[in-house]
Amino acid sequence: MERRRRVPNPLALAVLAWLLWEPMHPYELGRRLKQTGKDRHIRYTRSSLYMVIEQLDRAGFVTAQETVRDSARPERTVYAITEAGRHEVHDWLRSLLAQPRAEYPHFAVALSLLSLLPPDEAVEVLRRRSAALAGRIEETRTTMDEARADGVAWIFLVEEQYALALLEAERRFVTELIESLKQPDYAKSWQETMGGRV
Amino acid sequence: MERRRRVPNPLALAVLAWLLWEPMHPYELGRRLKQTGKDRHIRYTRSSLYMVIEQLDRAGFVTAQETVRDSARPERTVYAITEAGRHEVHDWLRSLLAQPRAEYPHFAVALSLLSLLPPDEAVEVLRRRSAALAGRIEETRTTMDEARADGVAWIFLVEEQYALALLEAERRFVTELIESLKQPDYAKSWQETMGGRV
DNA sequence: CCCCCTTTAGTCAGGGCTGACTATCCAGCA
DNA sequence: TGCTGGATAGTCAGCCCTGACTAAAGGGGG
User: Fold this and answer.
1) Which residues of A touch B111 (CB under 8 A)?
2) Is B57 part of any domain?
3) What is the pLDDT of residue B72?
4) Structural contact between residues A140 and A160, judged by C-beta atoms closer than 8 angstroms
5) Which comes out higher in pLDDT, residue B136 or B72?
6) Which of A130, A133, A156, A132 is nearest to A144 (CA)?
7) What local confidence, expressed as pLDDT, does residue A2 receive?
8) Is the shortest CB-to-strand distance from B25 to strand D under 7 Å?
């Protein structure tokens, strides 16, 4: 199927995408990532940025173009995307969009162990989650509204829209789950099977 | 807030949970993980299992109980959970359930770069995704039905139910997105802004 | 003119994770 | 008896990633 990428870190895709626009030095890349809020959906730290660029260089997807030293700042290497890099962006993007891949949300692991908690405790923590989710949903909505008010086109907000859809689905799921856990039969059967164990 | 765990890998939580039941050697743990299908929501390989158990040992959450050598097999170390380990399971589980944490689905990254693809190409790959999602949904439903037919209680299928909820939400999102991309205005504005660039 | 805080820019040690490898036992078959 | 394939069980080199650190420039207050 999908051969493994030479530089699998998603941050690399974002870097390549920016370099499609114009050559840049690492710090500038980092700044744009933050500024445009694209770092909200990518695990980004400055150190991993440098690492990833090094990897991209080794893989031949970018090349060091020149080393600028304006006045006295530490020297900054400007990187440009290569032809192989352009190809990689396109190919990677297509494959990410076309094939859903197994991701491993922490919540799923926790759910698979839900039976370890006494029913009332489970209900309590899930209520807290539900409230937190409501907060996230609010935040996301606000971010989107603000962006739209600034004239940002919908296509550049599509990842927020997706995040929102997932958050809302999770919220609905949690609400229903809480209801199921509150049924007296559940408390009863939990007592019977787990009562002494935990 | 949430202090970082001594052994942050979710596989560690699953290991501790099984050891709550009874002491076991690593290979046995791995077998049960696979058998019960719990490995579907955890990144599991044998090597990481050994690594994680080593880490749990260093952290004091498990202890090597005895080294069995039946007949001629390579010796197997049986591990038992400690009091600190019990506490860790409980605390970690509560915190995973109560606090949604930022996860970084690859699809979100790809979506944030969707504007790089010509509209018809975007539609094509998203249609493929939609079909793949339908397949996953089918699979998950079948797994759940089979388990229920075997008499498995709903509480032990709750993580599948969650996976299903997310898959369905994603599918709905993708369907709507395809519709938006098919609007003639989008093709037009894409031509205008990106036309020459890509 | 000195001090201190913030911003800019980058490095690196240390530990985590994975793919690839090793080694033994047993069953079946020729 | 000897060979082969599969299940059992574990190890390890090497890359990847992160948190913590370094360091210089600019700016503003005193």
Assistant:
1) 97, 158-159, 162
2) yes
3) 46
4) yes
5) B136
6) A156
7) 63
8) yes
